Amino acid sequence: GKTDKAIASYEVILDKNPSSTKHYYNLFEAHGIDVNNLDDDDREKIIEILNEKIEKHSKLLFLKRFLLNFLNKEEDFRVHFEKYCRHFLTKGIPSLVNDIENTIKTDELKMKVVKETFEKYLESMQKDLTIDGEEQDPMQETFLLFYLAQIRHIEGDYISALELIKEC
């Protein structure tokens, strides 16, 4: 019926323009999902849809970041965030925290995971220049300090943020 046609149409549009937030929300709506009132089944359906898109467009960072918005289980968020974060860290991209700020600033669980991840990586870098047992470029320590300073700034801990910046 109409629903199947709408879903198929949005799938075609998203295959041509996989970075369109608006069209993803339209696709979710065509699936009968109200993103402002998600239950567990709807959330799982969104995650399934986005994971399929990520498989198709594996190099597209937008999809990996967009998925973070819908992950509400600590371990799922941690696994996906660490993968997402490592790209920025290994490439030396300073805008990671700006990129995820809207996802984490009002979600205590996600903020906690992000902080813990940065702190864990920083501790490892300061100890032996590794992350998860893999040797890293020493500059990654600087980026981790910068990322943590940004997190502390978002939290309103300006003195701690400034101290971290001084370490950079």
TrEMBL record:
<keyword id="KW-0677">Repeat</keyword>
<dbReference type="GO" id="GO:0005737">
    <property type="term" value="C:cytoplasm"/>
</dbReference>
<dbReference type="Pfam" id="PF12569">
    <property type="entry name" value="NatA_aux_su"/>
</dbReference>
<keyword id="KW-0802">TPR repeat</keyword>
<dbReference type="InterPro" id="IPR021183">
    <property type="entry name" value="NatA_aux_su"/>
</dbReference>
<protein>
    <submittedName>
        <fullName>Uncharacterized protein</fullName>
    </submittedName>
</protein>
